[in-house]
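User: Could you go from structure to sequence for me? I need the amino acid at each position, not a summary. Structure tokens:
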């Protein structure tokens, strides 16, 4: 590999390809979404590929003296380890990643006390405010870059530079992770199928309109049980051809891994899935329950907007926009599809 002071974009890609990576027709530059990846020739297909040997486990990452390293016990090869650490120094953690995450944490810390308390208590964001700042910044960086693959969370060099877009392509998983397609301008990926405006903010720190909305964490009484709704959006099952939450039942609690409450593309789906789950469990009043869950969620975001109203600032504006986007996504529920199968 080249010496560190020679390790620019072209040399990094050469080393990336030497380890099995693919990066055809791509360059890095700033655009509407900040730094991102663009096609060199918009008329030519883009190919990005991170092989399995470069998908390094988040659990193997350590921070030492302000730098990102792989732990000694990591099973990564010597060349992969060298590449990872140089990549993080020149294009990831050490090339603006730490500064961006620090700015986000400091902006959250600077929010008025009542806003911080509301976000921690009602929105489950206490992790953003609890603990020493350096640790929160380091955790933030990993959370914003990691992706699930084969049952573990990994970091994916180069592809992690692609920005999020609602109309972006999807990641492809085969012997690694890839992004392919023809792009007239910036290369964009829709990071996860199960992503609502609240998830976008909590994971990546910006406000973005999404086509779906999921419930906040909540629990409510049923006839002789309780219903617990979580936000484990990665835990998914199927009812017929429809995506559905995982359902866990104990003597007194029904737990849903998540619950979709609105979809701009399929406005009849959210109620249909919930009604089917409740019907299968022989729980009555599914329609009223869904309306109560919707009301609970709407009220939380309306209360957040009310609390933000007297305040100004960039983070205040981002939170306000996120709440409005979430309410818009929640509104896309009309009728109920019959879920068969």
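Assistant: Here is the amino acid at each position, in order:
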């Amino acid at each position: 590999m080249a010496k560190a002071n020679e390790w620019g974009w072209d040399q990094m890609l050469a080393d990336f390809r030497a380890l099995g990576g693919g990066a055809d027709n791509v360059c890095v530059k700033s655009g509407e979404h900040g730094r991102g990846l663009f096609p060199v020739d918009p008329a030519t297909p883009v190919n990005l590929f991170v092989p399995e040997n470069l998908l390094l486990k988040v659990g193997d990452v350590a921070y030492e003296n302000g730098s990102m390293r792989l732990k000694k016990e990591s099973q990564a090869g010597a060349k992969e380890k060298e590449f990872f650490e140089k990549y993080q120094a020149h294009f990831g953690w050490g090339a603006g990643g730490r500064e961006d995450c620090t700015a986000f944490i400091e902006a959250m810390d600077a929010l008025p006390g009542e806003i911080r308390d509301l976000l921690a208590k009602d929105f489950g964001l206490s992790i953003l405010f609890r603990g020493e700042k350096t640790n929160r910044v380091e955790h933030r960086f990993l959370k914003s870059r990691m992706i699930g693959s084969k049952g573990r969370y990994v970091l994916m060099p180069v592809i992690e530079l692609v920005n999020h877009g609602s109309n972006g392509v999807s990641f492809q998983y085969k012997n690694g992770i890839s992004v392919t397609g023809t792009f007239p301008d910036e290369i964009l990926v829709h990071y996860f199928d199960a992503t609502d405006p609240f998830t976008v903010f909590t994971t990546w720190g910006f406000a973005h309109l999404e086509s779906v909305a999921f419930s906040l964490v909540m629990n409510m009484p049923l006839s002789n049980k309780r219903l617990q709704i979580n936000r484990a959006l990665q835990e998914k099952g199927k009812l017929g051809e429809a995506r559905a939450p995982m359902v866990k039942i104990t003597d007194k609690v029904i737990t849903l891994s998540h619950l979709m409450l609105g979809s701009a593309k399929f406005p009849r789906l959210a109620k249909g899935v919930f009604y089917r789950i409740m019907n299968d469990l022989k729980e009555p009043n599914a329609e009223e329950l869904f309306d109560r869950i919707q009301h609970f969620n709407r009220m939380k975001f309306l209360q957040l907007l009310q609390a933000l109203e007297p305040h100004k600032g960039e983070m205040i504006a981002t939170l306000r926009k996120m709440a409005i986007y979430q309410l818009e996504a929640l509104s896309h529920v009309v009728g109920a599809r019959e879920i068969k199968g």
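One structural detail worth keeping in mind: The chain has a mean pLDDT of 94.
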